[in-house]
Every structure is written in structure tokens, then in C-alpha cells.
Amino acid sequence: MTRAVQRMRVLVVAPSRYPLRQPHAGGLEATVWDRVRWLRDRGHEVMLCAAEGSDFLDDSPGFALPAPAWSRVEDASDTFYPEGYALATDAAHEVLLDRLRSGRHDFDVIDNHSLHPAPIRWSRDADIPVVTTLHTPPLEPMLEAAEYARGSGHRFVAVSQATARAWSVEGVDAFVFPNGIDTDRWTRGPGGSRWVWSGRIVPEKAPHLAIEAARTAGAEIVVAGRIGDVDYFQQEVAPRLGGPARYVGALHQGDLCRLVGSSAVALVTPMWEEPFGLVIAEALATGTPVAAFDIGGVAEVLAGMPGTAAVTAGDVTALAHAALELARQGEREPLTRVWTRRAAVREHALSRRYRDVERVLTHTALRSREQRMPAVSW
Question: Closest by alpha carbon to 201, among 155, 160, 232?
Fold first, then answer.
């Protein structure tokens, strides 16, 4: 284990919609799961606040949040909550606030990834420095909490320049620290002939357009991921499956790495202001080239990467042509996968990204501590 320069006591706060465990519900959950492991490997004392059923909660007694309980599987949603869940979550955050107030010296800093506004307010209400990572476009409740916390020991960081700009327009300024991936776990694969799409199966990720692009190019495609919108899957994705298009469900990281790494090209098809696009970095780390819609922070993840192409969001024909050319390049020059992997490790490895985050956490904790120290009179 590599020891940290200065050991911190960190409370990592995760989103509460899904537990942190494999197969990961999405890129946000994967990022926070990696964050806990990395901070602990660096020697920090880390506790986790997350949904019931998450990994690491056995080491964090009392910090479990209620997870949504859907009466029917088909009602589960990444957009809506079951009746009563919002009130239950609000109540759980109030209980945690009382605990933090009574033991505010138990933590040096809170590393907040929640989409709930309460942890932002804790910087003022519990007098504990908070670093909030912005993983989404602006959300009104979080904007209101940011205004409330203004002037307290709070900092914002964003996962891309595009995300930082979107929040800045709303009056919230943030440092930019892109996400990272564990390149020891995302290893280079041999490639193959089929195409691949992975991620949350929701309208804003638009896997149906990836299937259409593969069909246009006459390619086989495999779709992997958790269904986050059942109606969308049934109406837009399921009718396009069959023959050269297959759906294999949500996969554990190792299985997903093997699938992506044995593909000719990965398609990434966001139809919203994509904050980062972790699946891009994951695919590139396996050596698999990426053809993506150019929207949000996608261009930042692709910047400087060999084996990539970006096209106008929604242009299925352009995506098909770009992906076909990337697949052909890979056939002509097998070393492209080696170069792509090396570039991904250089730019997107956890060790590179998280050391910057660690410095922000440390500086925020130290600055808050110094501000609380009484002045010395002589």
C-alpha cells in the first residue's frame, strides 16, 4: 500500500438511488466505488455514506441510506422515485446531519458525490469542509444548496470543462478534475469483428441509435448495460434486437472488460449534455477504438486519443461510417490497439486523476482547520 503524504479522515457520500456494487448501476456509481478503494489504498481513513446494500458499508456503520423499493420491476426508473422515497431520503439526511454535528471532528473533509442537496449544506450546518463533485448538468435543488453554502468551507469540482461551464452559467464555479479509471482492471483485449455499446439503457444514452448505426454498416453489435427505463427499452431497443444485434444485460467489470476488449469498435451515443462519458475511457483502455456523438464533455475525453472519431450528435449515418473506418484501421494496423491503450493509461488512469483530487481534499481540510484556529495574541 502506498502511504498518503498526509492521512485524512474522509466521509465519501455516494448517490442513494443505487447501491455501490457490481455490476455497477452506471458510471457515477463505478467512479465512487473506485474512489473509496483508491483513498483507502493511499492510507486515508475512509467511511462511506451510500444506499443500503453497498460495498464498504460494513466498515461504515450508521451511514446507510434507504434504497428505492419498487413494487414492480417494470416501474424502476433512473428518473423517478417510488412514492415516499424522497421523504425517507430527506429524513435519513437529517439523521446524518445530527450525527455529524455531534461528532464533527470525526472527519477532516467530506467527499460528496450525491445528487441530493443536503450534503452541500453540511459544510455550513455541520461546520465540516465539503468538496462536491459535479457529475451532472445543473440541478435546481443543488443550485439552491450551493447558494446557501456560499462562504462556508465548501468547494466544487466538475468532471469536465463542459460541466463546469454549465454550472458556471448558473453561478457555481468549479475546478475541473476529470474522472479516472482503474487501468489495472481495464486491460487490453485482442479485438474482434463485432461492435459494442455499453452503459445505462436510458433515452439520453440512446443505445437504439448505436444499433441503427451498426445496421447501417452491416455490422454485428452487442449491447450491455442495466435497463434504467423499462418503457424506453421495450419501445426503442427491444424491437431492434435479433439477428446481428444482441442484448447481454448488465455485466460485472471483468466480463464487461472482456466484451469491450474483444470488439472491433465501441459506439458511444449520448443525446444529452454528457458530463464525461466513462465508457469512452474504459473502451480506450482495452485498446478498442471509439466512435462517439460529439456532445457535452465527450470531446474532452477523446482529446489526444488515437483510434477515435466524433460526429454530430444524432447523425446515425456519420456514426456508422466513422465506426466502419475505425474498425478497418484496426484490421490494417493491429498495433493501433497498443497505442490506444497506452494513450488511455497516460490520460485516464486513476493514479493520474485522483492525486489531483487528493490534493484538493487535503487543501480544503487544512484551510478549514486553519480558519477555525484561534488567533494568537502576544
Answer: 232
- Report how far residue 249's alpha carbon sits from residue 257's, in angstroms, rounded to the nearest whole number: 14
Residue 14's closest CA among 74, 96, 84? 96
Residues 6+ apart with CB under 8 A from 267: 195, 196, 197, 210, 213, 214, 221, 290, 291, 292, 319, 323
Cell numbers 451532472 correspond to what residue? 136
Distances (CA, A) of 371 to 107, 156, 361, 368, 374: 16, 19, 16, 5, 8
Q: Is the pTM of this model over 0.90?
A: yes
Beta carbons within 10 angstroms of residue 56's beta carbon: 20
pLDDT in tens, 213-267: 999 999 999 999 999 999 999 999 999 999 999 999 999 999 999 999 999 999 9
Alpha-carbon distance values, 4 to 45, 71, 90, 128, 370 (Å): 11, 45, 35, 21, 20
